[in-house]
C-alpha cells in the first residue's frame, strides 16, 4: 500500500497566478507559509518558516484564483509532485509542489489579532454565527475518500 498525502494549514504568501496551458488546461499557482515553533535545549523559543508551492488544476482552481490572495489562511490537502527539466544552463532542475485536491478557507483576518475578535457579547454571538458559516470547498475527484463532512467539534484545528 502506498500513500502520498499532504495536509497544510498556512497563510498565502502571494496572490494566485492563473494561466492556461498550451493544451487548454487551467492551472493556478500560489504558495503558502507554515511555521514551526519549539523551545531549544537552552529554553529559547525558536521558529522556522517553510514555504510550499501549490498547484491547482482545472476550472475549480480558476474559479477560486481571485479569492486566493496574500495573507489568507487556508487548509490544503493534496499530494506531492516533483517535476524535472533541463535549464538554460544545461543543468537538471527539480521542483516539488503540492497538487491541491481539497481546499478550505480559514477565518477572516482582522487588523487587531489576525483573527476575528469579539469585545462584547453581541460581537461574540455574531462571531459564533460567522464561524458556523465558514464555507468548506471540496475539490477533487468524486471518489475522493477524504470528502466526508465533519461536524464543528470534529475539526482538528
Order of helices and strands: EEEHEEHE
Oligomer: single chain
User: What is the average of the pLDDT values?
Assistant: 80
Global structural class: mainly beta
Q: How big a fraction of the residues is strand?
A: over 45%
Strand order of the largest sheet: 1-2-3-5-4
- Which architecture does the CATH hierarchy give at level 2? Beta Barrel
- Determine the number of helices (DSSP H or I, runs of at least 4 residues): 2
Descriptive report:
With 157 residues, the chain is mainly beta. The protein has two helices and six strands. It has helices at residues 59-64, 121-132, and strands at 6-20, 26-39, 45-57, 73-86, 92-105, 136-137. β4 (73-86) and β5 form a beta hairpin. The chain starts with 5 loop residues before the first strand and ends in a 20-residue tail after the last strand. Mean pLDDT is 80; it is low at 113-121 and 143-147.
Amino acid at each position: 500500500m502506498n500513500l502520498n498525502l499532504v495536509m497544510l494549514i498556512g497563510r498565502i504568501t502571494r496572490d494566485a497566478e492563473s494561466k492556461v496551458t498550451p493544451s487548454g488546461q487551467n492551472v493556478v499557482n500560489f504558495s503558502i507559509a507554515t511555521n514551526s515553533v519549539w523551545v531549544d535545549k537552552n529554553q529559547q523559543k525558536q521558529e522556522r518558516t517553510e514555504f510550499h508551492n501549490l498547484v491547482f488544476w482545472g476550472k475549480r482552481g480558476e474559479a477560486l484564483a481571485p479569492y486566493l490572495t496574500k495573507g489568507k489562511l487556508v487548509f490544503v490537502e493534496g499530494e506531492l509532485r516533483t517535476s524535472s527539466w533541463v535549464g538554460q544552463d544545461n543543468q537538471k532542475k527539480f521542483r516539488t509542489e503540492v497538487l491541491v485536491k481539497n481546499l478550505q478557507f480559514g477565518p477572516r483576518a482582522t487588523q487587531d489579532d489576525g483573527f476575528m475578535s469579539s469585545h462584547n457579547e453581541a460581537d461574540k454571538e455574531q462571531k459564533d454565527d460567522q464561524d458556523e458559516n465558514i464555507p468548506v470547498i471540496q475539490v477533487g475527484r468524486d471518489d475522493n475518500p477524504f470528502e466526508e463532512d465533519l461536524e464543528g467539534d470534529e475539526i482538528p484545528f
